[in-house]
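Let us begin with a simple case.
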Amino acid sequence: MLDGAGVGALPDAYLYGDKGSNTLGHIISTYREIKLPNLASLGLGKIVESLDADLKVNGAYGKMSQLSKGKDTISGHWEIAGVPLNFTFPVYPDGFPVEVVRPFEQMVGKKVLGNITASGTEIIKELGVEHLETGRPIVYTSADSVFQVAAHESIVSLETLYEWCRRAREEILQGDHAVGRVIARPFRGTKGDFWRTENRKDFSLLPPELTLLDYISQAGMEVCAVGKVKDIFSGRGITRHIEASGNHEIMKSLLSWMKEPVSGLIWATFVDFDMLYGHRNDLTGFARALEEFDQFLGEFLDCLTPEDLLIITADHGCDPTFKGTDHTREYVPLLVYGQGIKPERLGTRNSFADVGVTVLDVLNCPITLKGESFAKMLV
């Protein structure tokens, strides 16, 4: 999964202020020297008009609509796993109310700093020195349903920060205030040079229903998660996990797993597109990260066995050329490759959940999720 790699505004994008967004389309049309031969060979050029569409296509391709409301990481991942949501997670554009902040302050023994909507890099730049002087944790949110706690690793140990976030998740942020994720955001550095470390940790809600991951593991097969996928599903249904905090680590982890037999599912979400570039309106960085992924993809395709099926998609958009720095409500790409897969047009799917249903179909798990399988179109 390419985090934030949308391919055009959904029909209801205007409800979210996202009409006209098109993450990959705008990047590819603006960064004209971009080279994505492997993604193009799988059909991306048939989805994104600004990419060369004349290359021979070796995979099946299409795009998917989102049934769930919102445009966040949790609803995108859960819907792909077969659980579209009919509700939205609470958001706090004006900061968190007293009934959330006060018990958190009582728990940590200090007043919080911030309690505003902010960029994670900007808020540590603004409040990092005061945090170092007082030890008060920095609390902030974004357009997503998140409660984020930033603390310097020399002031608050990782164990303490994680415990604060775990307890906030379990004891405070429930019911009407059940945000999608509580996120520990440790940072280091000194005045004028603060940076977030790789020790981020997410504390998510459990999906309200069994997902693709649960059904595969219950059938006795493996579910291997790379990086933050485990946190998004709160570990449920996952049998093996590799920690990986960025695209390069995720690439290495995937290549290492391809050297051993895995019967079941490997799920990796490449986080840098969204986290490092989309949210920072960094079009050039996003484009270069896509090129790095494409180079990796060429190596990865060579590792696939005749029994393997590769699916590439996304969870939402995060258009670096669009107004603001938030996610954008977009279609997501659907690229499918494997030995014997026909270069078939899969059309516009009605739900991200079609991926989950198809994976169960391919793995011969007789479970019905909320989606429509496209497995028969692949052969």
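The second case is a distinct protein. As before, the sequence precedes its structure tokens.
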Amino acid sequence: MGFEPSKADYYLWIKDCGTLYEYICVYVDDIIAASLNADALLEGFRLKAHYKLKGVGQADYYLGGNYGRIKCAYAVDTCYLSAHAYIKNICERIEKTMGVTLKIYQIMDPDYRPEIDSSLVLCEDLISKYRMLAGSAFWAAALGRYDILYATNTYARYNILPREGHLNGMLRVFGYLKTFKKAKLVFDFRNFTHDLGEEIEHGWSELYPNAKEELPPNMPKPKIKAVKITSIYDASHAPCLVTRRSVTGIVLLLNTFLLRCTSKRQNTVETSTYGAEMVAGRLAVLQVMDIRYKLQMLGVPVEGASALLGDNQSVITSCSLPSSNLKKKHNAIAYHLSPYSRSCCGWSGKAILY
């Protein structure tokens, strides 16, 4: 029917329809289509003639996620993503399996340190159930419940040998989800209008004279309005009392829509806040490069350079100056990735101070 696997994702198929693109996403035996006439696509694939299809029509449930339309202050009609059906089902299953009643309003106890927990190790049966809880929490986070991502990553580190305290903490996460199961992630594509500061010439064009964005040669022709990508990153320096490894936190915005969240423990042990922030910034740059490529391979144009926002003045200053001298090799590599990313992200030869 003219569909081809996209370069962004092999299981996301794309078709050029002249003034727009049509998309079909396949996940095992689940299909979702983006088209002006999705029913005609199903008829064209002759699926209805050979298979008994369920849930055909306007998308309202897909892979555990609930979809719908909502009115809000900034839009008469916009879409939302929610995991309330999945959360309702999994919480009922947990209460039945574990013999508990989930009712917690705070996602984590601020005074609890799971790395030094000395409670009893769980039995083999409870270890299996603990891993089920971790996997279920990760899927809820994948469906837009980014508010549990840090807690889920923290407790999932103990999947091999969890203790009673870790199990209580994981149950606390689901108690929080049960309490706020109706939370929605609303699609907001208004322009990002926050003041990003002044652009200052720092001579990067002398160090990278031919820097420009390398666009894929087989990139689909853009057919919709351009979008802006903004990444906000931070690092929690050495919170783990055992390993002293830092944690990276990244929020990636598509215009003003929350597209992706990341909470990840860093691989290295950084001796300073500067080093932890530099590692977090490098990961944020890589994510921006990744999402820019995927969007452009789906026919979505990206407007100008992508903004990278952080709160460590030392990192911002040193990454804005071509004359910076960094003695640690991995920091120096991250430092040069920053101007390189400007060449991959529409860099104009200017650094921006935030």
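The radius of gyration is 23 Å. Residues 339-354 have pLDDT under 50 and may be disordered.
Keep these points in mind for the review questions at the end of the chapter.
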